[in-house]
Amino acid sequence: MIATDRGVPAEHILLENKSTNTGENILFTRQLLADKELDPGTFILVQKPYMERRSYATFKRLWPEKQVVVTSPQVSLDDYFGHRSPEAPSDEEVINILVGDLQRIRLYAEMGFQIPQEIPDEVWRAFEALVAAGYDKRLVK
Length: 141
Prior knowledge:
It contains 6 helices and 2 strands. By secondary structure, it is mostly helical. A two-stranded parallel ribbon has the order 1-2. Helix 3 (52-62) links the parallel strand 1 (42-46) and strand 2. Helix 2 (22-35) crosses helix 3. It starts with a helix and ends in a 9-residue tail after the last helix.
């Protein structure tokens, strides 16, 4: 585990390993902390670069009274595409993931799963162009 490799004592680590999505992860973590009678005021979410906004929006919907900072590895898109392992998704799959994730930023807010996030018009037009070009494999139908 990265945290223990960096010197964090194992007994100071709580693992939530039952969730299947970001919302469940937040809710299950909330319960785990309550069970341990812990009530931190600030959280740091470490996420994949393309999941930062959705993680933030979901956290603020489910736990709005807490402070949150979201971070991810700070890499350029070129580096992200170029430094993945052979088992990592292809460039085409990564684009499908990014397109699907942007759709979810809008859709999940409309469904009440997240707080709304501003999506600039030019970004949404790029989304629509990518969908029209066939990058629709990860869209919510």
